[in-house]
């Protein structure tokens, strides 16, 4: 009888130890490698214009020369991952300032614009001689 009572706690403790070793292995080896693969920026040679896009972060501002509209361009590869190290030109109005000159690891370049003119401005982006298919309208009131 004593042996059967001793076997049960030993099995429980052994299962807990094996489970802890498995969790330790997954958290230090498998999961970090998977996350790096999923979040790794793409090579700058694999930019796909049709996957890249232009989006407004703030598209309505006061026409006082100080309040800013903010537009982001995301440069993506064929798998919709960010392409780092590329430059973008946007046009459609004066007073456009790039916050970062080159795309970051998510493929993002941010632009700020100001105006003293009350008007809607149609903004478009050019990457290496190719225009993004979409445009965005920023409004200054």
Detailed description of the structure:
- This protein is an alpha+beta fold and 141 residues long.
- It folds into two domains: 1-39; 44-140, Immunoglobulins (Immunoglobulin-like), CATH 2.60.40.
- 27% of the residues lie in helices and 30% in strands.
- It has one helix and nine strands, in the order H-E-E-E-E-E-E-E-E-E.
- The chain has one helix at residues 2-39, and strands at residues 53-58, 60-61, 69-74, 89-91, 96-98, 108-113, 119-127, 130-131, 136-140.
- The strands form two sheets. Strands 2, 4, 7, 8 and 9 form a five-stranded mixed beta sheet that branches. A four-stranded antiparallel beta sheet has the order 1-3-6-5, with no helix packed on it.
- Strand 7 and strand 8 (130-131) form a beta hairpin.
- It starts with a helix and ends with a strand.
- The model has no long low-confidence stretch (mean pLDDT 86).
Provide tags for this entry:
141 residues; alpha+beta; Immunoglobulin-like; 5-stranded mixed beta sheet; 4-stranded antiparallel beta sheet; 9 strands; 27% helix
Summary, kept brief:
This protein is an alpha+beta fold and 141 residues long. The chain is built from one helix and nine strands, in the order H-E-E-E-E-E-E-E-E-E.
Show the helix and strand layout:
Blueprint: H1 2-39, E1 53-58, E2 60-61, E3 69-74, E4 89-91, E5 96-98, E6 108-113, E7 119-127, E8 130-131, E9 136-140
Parallel strand pairs: 2-9
Antiparallel strand pairs: 1-3, 3-6, 4-7, 5-6, 7-8, 7-9
Q: In CATH terms, what is the fold-level topology of the largest domain? A: Immunoglobulin-like
Low-confidence stretches: none
Quickly count the domains.
Answer: 2
Q: What gyration radius follows from the Cα positions, in whole Å? A: 26 Å
Name the helicity range.
25-40%
**Count of extended strands:** 9
Euclidean distance between termini CA atoms: 87 Å
Largest sheet: 5 strands, mixed
Percent in strands: 25-35%
How would you classify the helix and strand content by structural class? alpha+beta
Instruction: Give the overall average pLDDT.
Output: 86
The general outline is elongated
* Helix and strand sequence: HEEEEEEEEE
Tell me what the CATH architecture of the largest domain is: Sandwich
Q: How many H/I helices?
A: 1
CATH superfamily of the largest domain: Immunoglobulins
Which CATH top level class of the largest domain fits?
Mainly Beta
């Amino acid at each position: 009888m004593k042996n059967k009572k001793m076997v049960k706690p030993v099995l429980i403790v052994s299962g807990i130890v094996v489970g802890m070793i498995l969790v330790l292995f997954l958290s230090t080896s498998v999961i970090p490698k998977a996350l790096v693969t999923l979040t790794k920026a793409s090579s700058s040679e694999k930019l796909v214009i049709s996957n890249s896009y232009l989006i407004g972060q703030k598209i309505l501002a006061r026409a006082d020369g100080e309040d800013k509209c903010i537009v982001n361009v995301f440069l993506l590869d064929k798998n919709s991952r960010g392409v780092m190290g590329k430059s973008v030109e946007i046009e459609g109005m004066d007073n456009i300032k790039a916050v970062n000159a080159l795309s970051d690891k998510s493929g993002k370049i941010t632009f700020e614009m100001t105006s003293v003119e009350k008007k809607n401005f149609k903004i478009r982006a050019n990457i290496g001689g190719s225009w993004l298919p979409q445009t965005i309208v920023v409004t200054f009131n």
